[in-house]
Amino acid sequence: MFQFIGRLSATAVGAAALTATMFGAAPASAEEIVARLSYHWAPAHQSAIFCEEFAKRVNERGEGKIRIETFPSGQLFGIREIMGALSSGAVELGGVVGVVSFPPVDKNYNVEAMPGMFKDFAQLRRFFQEDETGQEIWNGVLKRTRTQFIGYNPTGPYMTFSAVRPLTSPEAFVGLKARYLAGIERPRWSALGADAVSMPTREVYTALQNGMIDTFNTVPAAIKAYSWWEHVKYGQLPFLFHADAFTLANQAWYDDLPDDVKQILLEVGAEIGAESTKSIMEFSTQVLNEFEERGGQVDTLTDEQLAAFTKVDDEKVIPELGDFVDANVIEAARAFVAN
């Protein structure tokens, strides 16, 4: 725990505590528990919609017992800040994107973002729930960050977009300016010949507008929610990986809750997880259809084209992933999906 907080820096944790004080929960009756749910997604993003639905259902079923107040669009904490805020107790509940928040705690969670490793959210989650290696990663992250899993709220399937040209061959990436959010994306951009720059979500629109970046990996929902489709023109399928996200709670806060309130949170969390997972895949298809109606182009790679990218991944990318995923974890994931 202390090692993790140290990596976030004392300044970041102090700022989180100060922000929590500034945005303190409204007064409640002696019996009612008031909790804050912080998430970074814009209101139109499917994950934001389901955060609001989660709070709504908990408030209805727990009326007089618990009330959740939501703080969207990073009002309290951004995508890279929320994990530290939850760990320190600066906020009670948070929307957490696994591939962003978990690797600083255990680099091996990066296995989620390996191109083509897991075919869907169900297979990805089963790896962390059923496989011994996957369980060790998942349980270790929650224990070290002192957080409690409440439910799934996936960000969506990741794919590659470009503002410059179709992405139908590895050569198409040479010279492009690529934004990355998760560190594990960087080796692949380099292998494809693109210049990679780390950039938070809030800066992407302006960077596209001024030409600072012209390609990136993201979920279809994001190009609509953040209006990025005003600048990107091309998309590449199949999906690279499935980016899971979660509603997590500060463990100490959760442990102090009455059992009936815990039950409400977990029941609603399970419902939202099932609904949001189904919805995000349908919504992704809908967004891509809208993207094409707006003049965008989505190219589904042929077997031959896909083989060319797989060759780059096998020969250039995976050998460079030692700093991101241990070899035994990659082997365990491959064995799991093969069976």
UniProtKB/TrEMBL annotation:
Q: Does the record bear DNA damage in its keywords?
A: no
Q: One Gene Ontology cellular component annotation?
A: periplasmic space
The record's subcellular locations are: Periplasm
Q: Name one Pfam family in it.
A: DctP
> What processes does the entry annotate via GO biological process terms?
transmembrane transport
Q: Which UniProt keywords apply?
A: Periplasm, Signal, Transport
Write the signal peptide boundaries. Answer: 1-30
Q: Please give the family membership noted in the entry.
A: Belongs to the bacterial solute-binding protein 7 family.
User: What PANTHER family would the database entry show?
Assistant: C4-DICARBOXYLATE-BINDING PROTEIN DCTB, PTHR33376
What is the name attached to this protein's record? Answer: TRAP transporter substrate-binding protein
